[in-house]
Amino acid sequence: MKKIGLFPGSFDPFTKGHELIVKKSIKIFDEIIIGIGINNSKEYLFDLQKRIKHINSLFEDQSNVKISEFNSLTVNFCKKIDATHIIRGLRNCNDFEYEKTIAQMNKNISGIETLFFLTDEKYESINSSLIREIYKHNGPIEKFVTNAHHLV
Ligand code: ADP
Predict the structure, then answer these.
(1) What is the pTM of this model?
(2) pLDDT of residue 152
(3) Catalytic amino acids?
(4) Cys-Cys crosslink for 72: which of 12, 30, 37, 76, Cβ 3.0 to 4.6 Å?
(5) 134 burial type by CB count under 10 A (0-12 exposed, 13-18 middle, 19+ buried)
(6) Within its chain, how far is the Cα of 40 from the centroid?
(7) Are residues 12 and 51 in contact, defined by beta-carbon separation less than 8 angstroms?
(8) Cα(40) to centroid(ligand 1), Å
């Protein structure tokens, strides 16, 4: 049976840090689903179609990396796509504290474990919300986002 991992997030936008987490996790799973979580009460800078197009451009040569959107509970989406694990990335202690609570709650309600990958040092300060600020003020985001032109 294929081992599937779900990497969920807002990916507004999908950064080199997110890309690294997919590269690390695909060594362990047969298939990674990048799940773009849609929260109707949240405003996004990059619309869903642009985010999908952008992420597709990064993994078009990798048939074991797929992209999907979902607006249900993450653990329910895992069950729907037969993912055994949720995958998340960690940059620092703040990420750890935040992620730990969510992971424990997810485990509690569904039995699904979360697997964490540490980011590499050079990506530690890459953060989608800072990139949105840079983008809004016409700053350069190409350093932090591969194929950034697909977001325009
Ligand atoms: P969410 O809105 O669910 O927090 P994000 O798109 O901000 O979604 O992040 C998705 C996942 O990627 C989270 O686990 C986050 O900690 C991780 N992540 C964000 N930036 C980086 C980075 N630079 N390096 C590694 N992981 C990262």
Answers:
(1) 0.97
(2) 85
(3) 18, 42, 91, 128
(4) 76
(5) middle
(6) 18
(7) yes
(8) 19
Nearest CA to ligand 1 atom 3: 9
Q: Enter the tokens of residue 81.
A: 């796509």
**Cβ-Cβ contacts under 8 Å for 102 (sequence gap 6 or more):** 114
Domain boundaries, the chain: 4-151
Contact at 8 Å (CB) between 127 and 34? no
Task: Compute, in angstroms, the gap from residue 44 CA to the centroid of ligand 1.
Answer: 15
Q: What would the pLDDT profile of 88-147 be if each residue is shown by its tens digit?
A: 999 999 999 999 999 999 999 999 999 999 999 999 999 999 999 999 999 999 999 999
In CATH terms, the fold of domain 4-151 is Rossmann fold (3.40.50)
In the prediction, which pLDDT does 40 show?
87
Tokens 């325009």 locate to: 152
